[in-house]
Write a structure and sequence with these properties.
It comes from Chitinophaga oryziterrae. By secondary structure, the protein is α/β, with parallel strands linked by helices. It has helices at 47-54, 77-87, 103-114, 118-131, 147-159, 177-194, 205-210, and strands at 3-14, 21-32, 36-40, 62-67, 70-71, 88-92, 165-169, 198-201, 213-218, 221-229, 232-236.
């Protein structure tokens, strides 16, 4: 398998001049292509911070993050923007859809920024709305969609540019049980059929039960890393 994410000795420190607080503390993490992995742990454990470091939304104080062998910690701010645009899909718990755009326009927005031709955009959007089972909602604006539908659109938007992987920060936190289950069904199907790599930050037991690998953080450190075997999890060394 190909290594997509390779974090080496990564730390993020706050209050460096007084009493340092390690949001992420000397983390080593490897994610292979096609994984369906959950980062779990109590509030303040460093899950979202680690996701932000991997996604290039923040820079580590120590260590390096490699995406497909490219050290993104060496990139400038503008280079990081361009890199994220072309390589990483993001799904946030607050959906972050643009309210004045239709569902279709939200999904194709990234491709517009990339300069993708209209014919290719149209074909990709059609495929994605079929995959998220919302063919009849393409011209609807976010305010007219349920929370679960908005998050499906957010997933489609994250996949529009065919990213190397998708980072999902508490994607089911604002959803009811049925909507969360439907969303997870869609992401699991995309992972299985298209080998899309997903890395979640989550408290949600429903996500944890679906993940094929569960990584637990406490006080910014990885304390356990479990990989699924059949329908069970087997402890592996960190």
């Amino acid at each position: 398998m190909d290594t997509v994410i390779d974090a080496h000795d990564v730390s993020k420190i706050y209050n460096r001049e007084t009493i340092p607080v390690y949001a992420v503390n000397n983390v080593h993490l490897h994610i292979e292509k096609g994984e369906f992995t959950a980062l779990v742990g109590p509030s303040g454990s460093g899950k979202t911070t680690l996701l932000n470091l991997i996604g290039g939304l923040d820079k580590p104080d120590n260590g390096n993050v490699f995406i497909n062998d490219l050290d993104i910690t060496k990139l400038s701010a503008n280079e990081l923007i361009d890199f994220r645009l072309k390589n990483i899909g993001f799904v946030f718990q607050s959906f972050n859809l643009i309210p004045v755009l239709t569902a279709k326009e939200n999904v194709e927005f990234i491709m517009l920024l990339q300069g993708v031709k209209k014919s290719i955009r149209d074909a990709r959007v059609k495929q994605l709305f079929r995959q998220i089972e919302m063919d009849d909602k393409v011209d609807i604006r976010p305010a007219q969609l349920s929370g679960g539908q908005q998050q499906r659109v957010a997933v489609a938007r994250a996949l529009a540019s065919k990213p190397k992987f998708v980072l999902a920060d508490e994607p089911t936190a604002n959803l009811d049980s049925k909507s969360a289950s439907n969303l997870l069904d869609i992401m699991a199907k995309l992972n299985k059929e298209e080998h899309i790599t997903f890395l979640f930050s989550t408290h949600d037991q429903r996500v944890i039960e679906r993940a094929r690998r569960v990584i637990t953080l406490v006080d910014g450190r990885i304390v356990s890393d479990t990989a699924a075997v059949s329908t069970k999890h087997e402890k592996v060394d960190v």
